[in-house]
């Protein structure tokens, strides 16, 4: 009887307790025989994952040992997946864009060829060992949009955003919120990469070069002599989300250029080499942000998104990857953010035109 009352008390107490919504934590990798929970010291690249994917009849993609992660442990791989779940209270005043279904879209689209004059769209960068993907995705999209809408070729500073946004954006190299990066562009702007580069020129002593390197300190001073920090700032007009319907996402890219997307990464994604990715095997590793630049349909009839990663060209399909489109694979369609470039602080020099921002 006493046991029954105790059980009843526990049930009632559980029901009365407030339900706290928590971000999904990386789950133990049940596929690795003999590896205990929390053991992150083994390599992220595993033969059995390559074999499982490549033998799967419906995988639709090819796995391989990507050279970029040859020396990465699971812990190091998790660390570079720097997207934190966005607090719900932050999103209450963020507008969400939708588009008319009457807008006709092409069956295939690639921002690199659509705006071939904009070389930044096809750049594949490297975030190193820092969980700065949230900053890379935002900076890459904004500089692309400066080219698309204002005919300006500019490389913007990931380091400015990473070091100076502070708690508003999250925890720097330990992860951040993509939408808040865009808010930083509206409020503070971002300097050029020349003014505040991500990697130092001497050796490798900056954000992600070494696994234990901390978030860089915000100095607000250009590394190049005679350049003034505030004069090098480039701004965004706004910061917004795009509705998760594929038509809305495609319309935004088609009209305005690449967008930043966040998604859940599983172990098998580290092994992606080619084809249209979908999760096949392995546990959750974390959240990652990348640049979405287009879409299409594979020869096998699978609709896909085309994305540029920032793990250099030693990963994936020369740094790019495709993921299945239209079913929110790994949450790829539910966290899409962007903003439009601003004419604020843009100085016309030598008779050149600054162009006009489209808002």
UniProtKB/TrEMBL annotation:
GO MF terms, alphabetically ordered: cysteine-type endopeptidase activity
Pfam families: Peptidase_C1, Propeptide_C1
Family, similarity comment: Belongs to the peptidase C1 family.
Record organism: Digitaria exilis
Keywords: Disulfide bond, Glycoprotein, Hydrolase, Protease, Signal, Thiol protease
Protein name from the UniProt record: Peptidase C1A papain C-terminal domain-containing protein
Domain Peptidase C1A papain C-terminal: 105-340
GO biological process: proteolysis
Gene3D superfamilies tied to this protein: Cysteine proteinases (3.90.70.10)
Leader sequence residues: 1-23
């Amino acid at each position: 009887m006493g046991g029954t009352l105790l059980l009843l008390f526990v049930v009632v107490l559980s029901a009365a307790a407030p339900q706290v919504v928590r971000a999904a934590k990386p789950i133990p990798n049940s596929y690795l025989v003999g590896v205990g929970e929390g053991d992150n010291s083994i390599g992220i690249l595993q033969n059995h994952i390559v074999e499982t994917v490549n033998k799967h009849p419906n995988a639709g993609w090819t796995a391989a040992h990507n050279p970029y992660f040859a020396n990465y442990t699971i812990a190091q791989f998790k660390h570079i997946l720097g997207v934190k779940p966005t607090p719900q209270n932050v999103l209450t005043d963020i507008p969400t864009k939708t588009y008319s279904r009457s807008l006709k879209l092409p069956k295939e689209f690639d921002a690199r060829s659509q705006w071939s004059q904009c070389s930044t769209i096809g750049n594949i960068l490297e975030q190193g060992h820092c969980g700065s993907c949230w900053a890379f995705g935002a900076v890459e999209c904004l500089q692309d949009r400066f080219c698309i809408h204002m005919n300006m070729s500019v490389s913007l500073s990931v380091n400015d955003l990473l070091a100076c946004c502070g708690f508003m954006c999250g925890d720097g190299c330990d992860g951040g919120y993509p939408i808040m990066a865009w808010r930083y562009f509206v409020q503070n702007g971002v300097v050029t990469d020349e003014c505040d580069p991500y990697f130092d020129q001497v050796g490798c002593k900056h954000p992600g070069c070494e696994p234990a390197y901390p978030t860089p300190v915000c100095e607000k001073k250009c590394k190049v002599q005679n350049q003034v920090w505030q004069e090098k700032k480039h701004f965004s007009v706004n910061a917004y989300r795009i509705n998760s319907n594929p038509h809305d996402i495609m319309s935004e890219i088609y009209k305005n250029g690449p967008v930043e997307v966040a998604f859940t990464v599983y172990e098998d994604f580290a092994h992606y080499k080619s084809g249209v990715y979908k999760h096949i095997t392995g546990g959750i590793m974390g959240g990652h942000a990348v640049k979405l630049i287009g879409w299409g349909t594979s020869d096998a009839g699978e609709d896909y998104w085309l994305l540029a990663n920032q793990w250099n060209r030693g990963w994936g399909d020369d740094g790019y990857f495709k993921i299945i489109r239209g079913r929110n694979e790994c949450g790829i369609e539910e966290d899409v953010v962007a903003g439009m470039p601003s004419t604020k602080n843009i100085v016309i020099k030598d008779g050149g035109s600054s162009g006009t921002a489209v808002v």
